[in-house]
Amino acid sequence: MLVLTLRTDNPLAEVGLFTDDKKNAYETWQAHRELADTIHKKIEKLLKDTGKTWQDIEGIVAFKGPGSFTGLRIGLTVANTLAYALTIPAVGETGDDWVAKGNVRLAAGQKEQLLPEYGAPVHITKQKK
Length: 129
Description:
This protein is α/β, with parallel strands linked by helices and 129 residues long. It has helices at 35-49, 69-86, 98-107, and strands at 2-7, 12-19, 22-30, 59-63, 90-93. The model has no long low-confidence stretch (mean pLDDT 94).
């Protein structure tokens, strides 16, 4: 199973392609404020470099937190959108072994809509009158 991995919880973003537990390709870059502009280009480059296409992706594992509010929103939105458009499963994980845990869940047939775990309560500013 060809799995796309995404980690966008901090300014150093990561995308990877795995076949089961074997890493086929992996890219990290200083995305910082350009994450939304660069993430699709990085995924496309990984696919091209490995001779794969978007349709070859069979599952997605995303790091769901804790981390940057905006980074997690962008990464998980990309993961959810690709999963929907390609009709493939996606799972979210946390911790140092997030890729391995996600691959186990995908192999077991699990899938979910990915929601971020920010690591702290959300602070909502009261509306000014």
